[in-house]
């Protein structure tokens, strides 16, 4: 659940690298004004819902820096800054690193290729961390992250992504609430699905359709009050969410979809959860 996030204004946002991911076909030019309005709407939606928003300064020539999710992952007071596989994005690391140092996080820079919260998602009140690999992040990032975090309360799993359209884990895997998950099964291999359903109750998982997956429904931001914020949801998916008392709020992100990103890609969870807070949550979810 996101309560305290980092965002980067799309001042220099553009799509200039052909097929940096399979969505970036450059058939249509980015409409900069529209991108700005869409980003502002997302920011306003989050602020209106009481989410704290922090900002990192956009940098000239770093056209993808708006996708703050890729900057790092944060666990308690530790910020683990990305080592981008995407060459045009490599220079972003030093700006994200600087943000965390200045704001007093224990900051670590990854040696293994790893694209932050795009490929690293927590679930079950931060007792599980899921790492996607196959396109951008390296499977070996697990060992390095395990060493940095070194917390036996956290179980770390790797998931193999198999479809280049779902190249970051946050495009096809969306943990929300305490133990809920929305996912696009076709983005994973069998072994990964097995790992997922070993931890998440399959009956309770929402398996999204091709249409929802293509509209980046799994790239949703889960915020307090049982709300998910995404680009668009089919009526069927909305109904499934309503059945479990969740609400899907839509905010248009069409310009960012041209770059292979949506709402969740534009935010990074920077909350410093303290150990006792996590413990409290575990008690609530599993009973005393
Ligand atoms: N154009 C960006 C890239 O290819 C999109 C990043 C999307 N971010 C994400 N967290 N899925 O790197």
Q: Could you name the ranges where pLDDT drops below 50 across 5 or more consecutive residues?
A: none
Largest sheet: 3 strands, mixed
**Chemical compounds bound to the protein:** arginine
The strand count comes to 15
The percent range for helix content is 25-40%
Rounded to the nearest angstrom, the distance between the terminal CA atoms is 22 Å
Which descriptor suits the 3D outline?
Answer: globular
Give me the secondary-structure category: alpha/beta
Strand order of the largest sheet: 2-1-15
Helix run count: 8
On the 0 to 100 scale, the average pLDDT is: 95
Order of helices and strands: EHEEEHEEEHEEEHEHEEHEHEH
Proportion of residues in β-strands: 15-25%
Radius of gyration from CA coordinates: 17 Å
Polypeptide structure, described:
This protein has 288 residues and is α/β, with parallel strands linked by helices. Helix content is 27%, strand content 20%. It has eight helices and 15 strands. The strands form five sheets. The chain has a three-stranded mixed β-sheet, with helices on one face. A three-stranded mixed β-sheet has the order 3-4-5, with helices on both faces. A three-stranded mixed β-sheet has the order 6-7-8, with helices on both faces. Strand 4, helix 2 and strand 5 form a beta-alpha-beta unit. The chain is globular and about 45 Å long. The two termini are 22 Å apart. The structure holds arginine. The site of arginine has 16 residues, from loops.
């Amino acid at each position: 659940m996101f309560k305290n996030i980092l965002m980067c204004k799309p001042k220099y946002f553009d799509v200039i690298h052909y097929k940096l991911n399979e969505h970036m076909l450059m058939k249509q030019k980015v409409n900069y004004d529209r991108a700005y309005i869409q980003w502002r709407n997302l920011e306003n939606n989050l602020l209106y819902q009481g989410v704290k928003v922090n900002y990192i300064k956009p940098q000239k020539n770093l056209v993808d820096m708006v996708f703050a999710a890729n900057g790092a992952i944060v666990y308690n007071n530790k910020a683990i800054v990305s080592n981008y596989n995407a060459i045009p994005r490599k220079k972003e690391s030093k700006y994200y690193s600087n943000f965390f140092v200045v704001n007093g996080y224990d900051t670590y820079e990854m040696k293994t290729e790893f694209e932050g919260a795009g490929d690293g998602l927590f679930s079950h009140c931060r007792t599980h961390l899921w790492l996607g690999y196959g396109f951008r992040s390296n499977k070996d990032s697990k060992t390095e992250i395990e060493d940095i975090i070194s917390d036996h309360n956290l179980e770390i799993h790797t998931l193999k992504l198999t479809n280049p359209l779902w190249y970051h884990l946050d495009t096809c895997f969306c943990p929300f609430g305490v133990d809920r998950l929305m996912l696009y099964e076709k983005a994973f291999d069998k072994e990964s699905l097995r790992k997922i359903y070993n931890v998440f109750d399959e009956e309770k998982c929402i398996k999204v359709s091709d249409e929802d997956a293509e509209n980046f429904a799994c790239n949703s931001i889960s915020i307090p009050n049982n709300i998910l914020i995404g680009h668009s949801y089919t009526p069927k998916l909305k109904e499934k969410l309503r059945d479990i008392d969740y609400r899907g709020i839509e905010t248009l992100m069409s310009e960012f979809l041209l770059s292979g990103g949506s709402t969740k890609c534009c935010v990074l969870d920077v909350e410093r959860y303290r150990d006792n807070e996590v413990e409290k949550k575990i008690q609530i979810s599993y009973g005393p």
